[in-house]
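From the shared-data thread, chain only:
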Amino acid sequence: MKLIVGLGNPGNEYVKTRHNAGFLLMDRLCEKLNVTLDKNKCRANYGIYNHKGEKIIIAKPQTYMNLSGLAVSSLMNFYKIDSADLIVVHDDLDLPLGKLRLRRQGSSGGQKGMASIIEQLGTSKIDRIRIGISNDKSIDTKDYVLGKFSKEDEKILDEVLDKGAEALIYAFDHDFDVVMSKFN
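Structure, as tokens:
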């Protein structure tokens, strides 16, 4: 069993914000797999995809970004999933828009949702996909990440979401090191 979690904030006001890049990738993955996030348990909306007899849980925490670890640890405990079978998808201010970076482990890099997950799980050995959202230093960081993508940025983001969904689907059958070398 695997758990794929996209980070973001629940609520209509956050739907197409930069901070919800993880949610947007979960939506794209669900479109490609014809999965509906029709379950609401463990502080998350999620769906289950069966891939060659293995369950893949696709989830969007409903705790708001800074408390994402509560939902992730709840799901992992409920389904008895090891951290080696977890992939977290989140936005990254330090990457240019249009860049996707896959990483095996490391610090949160200042991403508060990832920090919450690391704290709750007690490990930084978590596979992750970071989606570049750039950074406009002339705008307060909170206002920037909670701002919406421009029409031009949405076009770039659309390609990244397709590539990210492809990487996640590839990860169903391949070790994350192989996925990283193909998609980084």
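The radius of gyration is 15 Å.
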